[in-house]
Amino acid sequence: MANLLNPANPLFPDVYQIEVLDRVKGGPGGTANRQAEQLLERTAFLKKQIDDAVSGALTVMFASKLKVGRTLSMTGDGSWNVTFDGSGNVSAALTLANSGVVAGTWPMTTVDAKGRVTAGRALLAADIPALDYSKITTGKPATLAAAGITDAQPLDAELSAIAALSATGMIVRSAAGAAVARSIAAGTGITVANGDGVAANPVIALTSSGVVAGTYPKVTVDALGRVTAGAALAAADIPALDYSKITTGKPTTLAAAGITDGALATHSHTLSLGDGAAQKISWGSGQRLDVVAGTNVNIVYDDVAKKMVFSTTGVLSGNADTASRWQTPRTLSLTGDATAALAVDGSGNVSAALTLSNSGVVAGTWPMTTVDAKGRVTAGRALVAADIPALDYSKITTGKPVTLAGYGITDALLASSYTAADVLAKIKTVDGVGSGLDADLLDGFDANYLRDWNNQINKPTTLAAAGITDALVALSAPQQWTAAQRGAVVTLTDAASIAVDLALANNFAVTLAGNRTLATPGNAIAGQSGMIVVKQDASGGRVLAYAAGWVFAGGPAPTLSTTANAVDYLAYYVEAPGRIYLSAVGDIR
User: Is residue 151 within 8 Å of 426, Cβ to Cβ?
Assistant: First the structure.
């Protein structure tokens, strides 16, 4: 008996194959109906599966398209939606929500926790940090003058010439890059002591001219300009002076000056007009005031105020070249680039608000602006790198260092160091009584200089090269030890929290007299290692816990021996401060 091939899924019993020798038998379960029954069962199962898939009662494993297309959407920091039924790939633009920033280019921005720019503005002075001089990589001055340094003395040939002098006396620059020793010699009417300045400072004195010491308004001098005699002034000695030469004590009034034929500045003159006929008053070029017949006009000239004052008892008529007000008030108005309006009648000053027309620029503070031919700002924006021109160092007017140290310049000498003592040190090459000079120098240096170890050259750099055998070698350099080296074992203080100071030693020991916690070590430096010997007291049963900072292989802390007098070794290694690896070797016997 054989079976037809069974489909892989679903796993139903194999479909029976009718054999040649089978008896044909109908009815339920009969041989003739067995195949039909098995196929019917499969067909019914497959139909139900299809019906359930179509109705949605069954979730199919695979499908090429959704029955009902779905809309996928996003909101919040961005908006996006797309209709998707699974029949193919779809895409749509995602639009980010506005963050609140004004669109533009900003050198200073504010961002939120999601990295979005929420505000922007121009740079302020406070935004730029203080910069070290080393951050300036271009345009730095190469000379003292360019740097504006005034407290330094440049190296030059003149100083070299002074240093090369061997003679005694006062130093004189005889030519460019040349110096010689000079002395002061006596002359007519002058005496000189210590003219070369070697024994002491030169003293120059005038010989007596014969005049008696005192104060004289009139003196006699010789050909050398020395006062040889003195006397009081005589009337003939005072020349005639212009009044302008008298600068003090001059009178300020006619009475004080004794003048009787002058008029006071504060006075007036009155002129009465009105002889029955029309009059006119004219002054200047083409200026005239008409007066009605019979009018009395008074004219007063104020000498102090420098003006004419008119008064009248009648009526003035006609058009005056000037007037105090207009007969009809006028309105003056402005339009175009600005608007304003003024009501004017000439009786007094008037003012009105002038309103400029908008130029199109957005109100704000802009480091870069666009202007029109009338000088009005029409647009503004933030600075970009291309807006800032290349600047010469001279344009930096503040914050520049003013000393050599501030610039980091090492090839110049401080001007303050060139005192008399410094110059003397440069020319110490010959003896001179009382001069402080010493000819017994070696290459220009005295004995005290040569005794200073810091001034030596070719100094040995190792103990062996110096022939020193009783000093310790530097532990910061690789060494080869030819004898045993050991560190002391420091006993830790037993307490509820056992403190460990790794600066004291590498190896430690402690005896537990109760349940304890091994504290986080102090002064831990990466790379240090050592051993901690932990011993139970005579009672035993003590438990040791570990503070934060200790780490262990596999995670859990080791459990130590608790029998009386038991000994455990804790080997440690400092990976970093606050992280010390610890490994236990238990029950050492």
Answer: no
pLDDT in tens, the chain (589 residues): 455 555 545 556 677 777 777 777 778 777 777 778 778 888 888 888 788 877 777 776 566 777 778 888 889 888 888 887 778 888 889 898 898 989 999 888 898 888 888 898 988 888 888 878 778 888 888 787 787 888 777 777 877 877 787 788 878 888 887 888 888 888 777 888 887 878 888 888 878 878 888 898 888 888 778 888 988 888 787 887 787 777 887 887 767 777 776 655 544 444 444 444 444 454 444 444 554 545 556 666 666 666 666 666 555 555 555 566 666 788 878 788 878 787 777 777 878 787 888 978 798 898 888 878 888 888 988 878 777 787 777 777 787 777 777 777 777 766 666 666 666 666 655 444 445 554 455 555 666 776 777 877 777 877 777 777 776 666 667 777 788 878 899 999 999 999 999 999 999 999 999 999 999 999 999 999 999 999 999 999 999 999 999 999 888 899 899 999 999 999 999 999 999 999 998 888 8
CA pair distance 86, 386, nearest whole angstrom: 51
Where do runs of H (alpha helix) occur along 17-143? 31-55
Asked if residues 407 and 133 have their Cβ atoms less than 8 Å apart, the reply is yes
Considering only CA atoms, which of 403, 392, 376 is closest in space to residue 140? Answer: 392
- 512 three-state secondary structure: strand
Show me where the domains of the chain are located: 1-89, 100-129, 157-206, 489-585
State the pTM of this model. 0.27
For 489-585, the fitting CATH number among 2.60.120, 1.10.357, 2.120.10, 3.90.550 is: 2.60.120
489 in Cβ contact with 505 (< 8 Å):
yes
Q: What are phi and psi of 323, to 5 degrees?
A: -145, 165
Six-digit token string for 378? 């029409």
Classify residue 359 by its DSSP letter: -
Torsion (CA) 136, 141, 146, 147 in degrees, nearest 10? 50
428: which residues sit within 8 A by CB, 6+ positions away?
436, 437, 438, 441, 444, 446
CA distance 227 to 200: 30
Residue 565 token pair = 């007098």
**Strand boundaries in 200-327, DSSP class E:** 203-206, 218-221, 227-231, 279-283, 287-291, 297-302, 307-312
Cα–Cα distance between 536 and 564 in angstroms, integer? 6
